[in-house]
Design goal:
α2 packs parallel to α3 and α6 packs parallel to α7. The protein starts with 5 loop residues before the first helix and ends with a helix. The protein is built from 17 helices and 16 strands. The structure holds manganese (II) ion.
Length: 511
């Protein structure tokens, strides 16, 4: 689709497998992300969502690690269409736990690199091979489909690695997996490694690549280009340390850049990412490829102008392909076109003069380093409109009563949509009493929350001018209000009314 002429590239440089399997390990390697622990119920919910997009295998957990894991694995198997996989070391006890969880597919591993042999396992090369073969034979004897990982394969002596894989193939293993346990591969080394393994091994090759240098997805793609049949991935790329290759990056690159559809429903990827982010508490950075909040967000005037004409000018794929949405952000780089389209989105119509003022305010705020949220933009626009309009709420009168040992009382008289209303209320102080009275008078019209109240004296002395800045909100919008008066209570009342008048105008323009 990007004119990469994939067919001729395939012929010249690629050795694609007939079928590419997606092995999702969000619930195993992903769950091993530091600080993460999921309940059985959470694991089941995630498994179902991953299953819905159409992956081939879901590694449900490590049954030998706890009875909860055995339970989670057996329950996950019941609710998914994908093959449920359990992790096991190549020892009888771990294989038995996989069988206890009633799984049919085991992913078994043993460390093969000098570091793992000498420091972790304290085993020589021969015993590593013997142990691996024994564990695999035990699993095969009990009817399991077996995938074997040479842990830390990429830091294992190449000759020994090939010996290990040859031995496990002879023992009847169904898939061999190549873990880049600490993420040290680069694409060119991946190509050499996978090609060499393919020349010695005649069963499907799987890869499991970590992202320590940000290369997990690139390396996984290279492995696939060179004949790997399966990729281990996780949602959002979560996993040990900096994680694994991410399912969304891999699948969407294959589909959109390579033109290879492996049968995954990409339109659910954004929701899946969001769901896993919320349940695990591991939120994606805004610039995360494919699923980050900024993946389809635009601010610069030139880009937005292009996007509005044809979104492909500045987007490689449409957000719909991954279930995401496009966002036009307003800030210092905003052009007049984006601002107009944003205001249209909110059905806010401004005169040329009003638009000019809002545009200049947006630029001025941007220059001060402020980000302008959608709330801010609406408030700026409504301020311009309300300046030219009758405000729905007018202050007709204000009385205060205060003394020793009694609560301060304020009486407020308002005209709301042409109807006069008056009420008294108490509070902890004069300002509080006045605001309580306003709240009670408008309670039939709207439900407001005072989010922020700031009082500043502009000049010194007891006759100082008080400036009050407030932010009020209803269920949908926020609005700022500002007023200056010699009297603190009057300034507060005027600022609040200023703010809620705007809020009313905003919510009425929404209807
Ligand atoms: Mn791993």
């Amino acid at each position: 689709m990007y004119n990469l002429d994939i067919e001729s590239i395939k012929k010249q440089n690629m050795d694609l497998a007939d079928k590419i399997y997606i092995f999702d390990t969000t619930l195993r390697d992903g769950e091993q992300a530091p600080g993460l622990a999921l309940t059985v119920d959470e694991k089941i919910q995630i498994a179902q969502k991953i299953d819905n997009i159409g992956v081939d295998k879901i590694e449900a957990g490590f049954p030998a690690s706890s009875t909860g894991e055995v339970l989670a694995c057996s329950q996950i198997k019941e609710v998914i269409d994908a093959t449920a996989v359990g992790l096991a070391r190549t020892v009888k006890n771990d294989v038995d736990a996989v069988l206890d969880a009633d799984l049919d597919y085991m992913h078994t591993f043993i460390g093969t690199s000098p570091l793992h042999r000498d420091y972790k396992l304290k085993m020589d090369k021969e015993s590593i091979i013997e142990t691996a073969v024994a564990g695999i034979e035990y699993g095969k004897d009990h009817g399991l489909t077996v995938e074997f990982s040479a842990e830390d394969a990429t830091r294992t002596e190449r000759d020994f690695l090939i010996d290990v894989y040859k031995a496990v193939v002879d023992a009847g293993v169904d898939f061999i997996n190549v873990p880049d346990t600490v993420g040290v591969l680069t694409p060119i080394i991946t190509k050499a490694l996978v090609s060499e393994l393919k020349s010695h091994i005649n069963i499907p090759i799987s890869v499991h690549f970590h992202n320590d240098f940000g290369l997990a997805t690139a390396n996984t793609l290279t492995a696939i280009e060179n004949g790997a049949s399966q990729a281990h991935v996780t949602v959002n790329g979560i996993g040990e340390r900096t994680g694994n290759a991410s399912i969304e990056e891999l699948v969407v690159t294959l589909k959109a850049v390579y033109g290879i559809d492996i049968g995954i429903d990409t339109t659910q990827l954004y929701n899946l990412s969001d769901f896993v982010g919320r349940i695990t508490g591991i939120k994606m950075p805004i610039n995360k490829p494919i699923v980050g909040e900024n993946a389809f967000a635009h601010e610069s005037g030139i880009h937005v102008h292009g996007i509005l004409k044809n979104s492909l000018t500045y987007e490689p794929i449409s957000p719909e392909l991954v279930g995401h949405s496009r966002k036009i952000v307003i800030g210092k780089h905003t052009g007049a076109n984006s601002l107009k389209s944003k205001l249209e989105e909110y059905n806010i119509e401004l005169t040329d003069d009003q638009f000019e003022k809002v545009f200049n305010q947006v630029k001025a705020l941007g220059d001060k380093g402020k980000t302008i949220t959608d709330y801010d933009l609406k408030a700026l626009a409504i301020t311009q409109i309300s300046a030219a309009k009758e405000t729905p709420i007018k202050l007709l009168g204000l009385g205060l009563f205060f003394g020793a040992n009694v609560s301060p009382t304020a009486t407020v008289k308002l005209e709301i949509d042409g109807v006069e209303k008056e009420v008294s209320a108490t509070g902890v102080g004069n300002v509080d009493a006045a605001l309580n009275a306003i709240r009670s008078l408008i309670s039939d019209t709207m439900d407001i929350e005072l989010e922020e109240y700031n009082l500043e004296a502009i000049t010194g002395g007891t006759d100082a001018l008080a400036e009050v800045f407030v932010i009020t909100s209803d269920s949908k919008n926020k609005s700022i209000g500002r007023a200056t008066n010699e009297d603190i209570v009057m300034a507060s009342v005027e600022a609040v009314l200023d703010s809620i008048n705007k809020l009313l105008l905003i919510s009425r323009s929404d209807e």
